[in-house]
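Weekly structure sync, notes
Attendees: PL, DS, HV (note-taker this week)

Item 1: S1 motif domain-containing protein
DS walked through the input record. Source organism listed as Peribacillus saganii. Sequence as pasted into the shared doc:
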Amino acid sequence: MNRILAGYKVTLEVDRGTDFGFYLTDGEEDVLLHRSEIVDDIEIGDQVKVFIYYDKQGRLAATMRIPEVQVGKYGWAEVVSVKRDLGVFVNIGLVKDILVSLDELPAIMSLWPAEGDSLFITLKLDKQERLFGQLATEDIIQREAVPAPKGIWNQTIKGNVYRLLKVGSFVFSEQGYRCFLHESERKSEPRLGELVEGRVIDQKDDGSLNISLLPFKQEKMDDDSEAIYTYLLRRGGAMPYGDKTSPEDIQFHFRMSKGAFKRALGKLMKDGKIYQEDGWSYTIDKKQDE
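Item 1 (cont.): predicted structure, written out as C-alpha cells:
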C-alpha cells in the first residue's frame, strides 16, 4: 500500500475521534484531521477526501480544505513574505505557508517577487519529503494556456510575469493567454510574479500575444515633452541639447531614443514653450528676455 505523503489529495477512513479532531487511516498509517480543518459533518467509519500537509510542528496533518495547488497540479499562489536567505513564502490556502526556494528565483534579488505578487506553481517533495513550491516551466505554461481570440489587437491585458529572460519577460494573462513583453516595450524590468497591465501589439499564429507596457505614441510624446521641459526648467531654461545632439548623449541624459527626443522637442516648439538656437534649446521666456 502507498504511504501517506504530503502534497496529495487522498481518501481516508475516519478511524477514531479525540477532543481536538479525528484520526484518519489508510489501514497502516494514521493522520490527524484537526477540528479546525473539518468543513462537513463526519462520523467514525466515513470515507473522507482530504489534503495532506505538514502542520506548523512539522507533523503530517489532513485538511478538508483542499487547495488547487498540489503535487502535479498547478495554480496561482500569492506571495505573503520574502526571506533573503530562503526564498519566498506563498499562500495556497493552508494554515501553513509554502516555501518557494531561492533556487527557483532570479539571481538578482530586486527581481524576486514581492508581497502581493502571484506565482503559478505546483508542489514538490524533496529527498527528505519536505514540501516546497515549484514554478511552472515553459512547457507547463504552454499546456495550460489558451489561444487568444482574433481581433484582440490594441486591447488592454493584465497578467503576472512567470519567466524572465534578457530579451524580455513572459506574462500569463488573467484570461490564460501566453504573452511576451520585449525589453524594448517596457521602461523597466518587472519582477517575477508582478501583475502588469499592457496592450496587445501583435498576435502569433499559435494564439500567443506580444504586449507593450509603453503608452501610445502620443501619450509617450506628452510624457517625453514633460520630462524635457522639466529638465530645461531645472537648468534655468537652457540646455546644450537639440536636434543635432548625438543619440548616445540623449540616451544618457534623457533615457529616450533620438527619434522620441526630436518628436518631443517638436511638440514643445509647436506649443510655443521652447525654441532652439545654435544647438541649444531654451524656454520661450529666454527669448522674451533678450
